[in-house]
Amino acid sequence: MALYDASRHEPLTRAPWSEPIARAAIERIVHDTHAAFTDAGLWPIHPIDRSPERAATLKPLYYGAAGVIWALHRLHEAGGFELRRDYAEVLPPMRIAHRRETVERDGKPLLGFTLGDAGIALLQWRVTRDADVEDELHASIAAHVGAAESELGFGWGIAGSMLAALFLYERTGATRWIDAYRAGADALWRRWEYDAQFDCHLWSDDLYGHRDKQLGALHGLAGCVHALWRGSALLDRDRRDELVARAHRVLSATALRDGPHANWPLVAGPSPRPGADVLRLQHCVGAPGMVNCFARLPSEPRTDALLNAAGELIWRAGPLTKLPSLCHGVPGSGYALLKLFARSGNERWLARARRFAMHAIEQAERGKRDHGQRKYSLWTGDLGLAVFLLDCIHAADAMPMLEVF
Fold first, then answer.
1. Residue 106 pLDDT exceeds 90
2. CA–CA separation, 405 and 401 (whole Å)
């Protein structure tokens, strides 16, 4: 059984791991990012991302300026790389413009974390500690997790808002953020229903005109499980125990196995969604995202075997052909290898992640030559690569926005 589309992958570079080369790559990305910024245009949209329905400048954490600014601060604080300016003054007007653009496009503001107002506001609060911004954030997150029509997943749904509330609680200790996180957990739990076909609990959600049971890390089950487990210390013991049992069960029940390898489809069960039957190996869909979202669960023999089998498939398939990104490129897959190292202590996984890192450096430099610019984005471009390279140097595995903000 073919568990992935080989045409989406390419042979791994022969270049061995080199910390000096990785550091130099980060330096180039940081230098080019600072140099490309303008007050009027923020960062230029990459040619492959330009489309009539998008704004002239991209702003959210996921693929826009807010994510770039977050990454620059992260690289400065965790790695000592140059921060020429803190960009704090651009955040208030950028947030206002993003809200206006989403209302014009969708007829309402986009409240979520990765693509919506909450993410930009959280970054603004992080660099300014403005109490009014924190109050606005609380109102926004409360409205989002309380809305019956809110999407569920990490991408722009309840799971993302739960993580934003959790990050704020960890930085402030304020109990209102515990309440906001628990409200989101309650909302997810109410919609987590038993599925007799798979003999496990699954979520159904509406996305892009289709209702089905997505499993992936961006819009599906994996991101929801991660949000619940990441803040599980705030849940009561019975719910934590049930969460662990359901998570172990659903990982096994939905897995596709072929010998020593494992992968997961986009959707559990039939779906009319275009491309639902394509087996991918990316963070957003497939084994890398399942590892990234499930790797911190308590050890259990069946889960341990599945996560290792997923890692072996990632390694066998080799790097994705796309430009490097956390969402659907080599860095996202590389984080899965870092997480298997953190989970098992086996140095083989760290060595493999670092080989992926060397390949991603080559992809990024080739992309810059081919397109005449870098891809200025945290989750879909070179800034995510830079953070991944830093974590390869430090042998760390905390993914941006999923586990650290």
1. no
2. 5
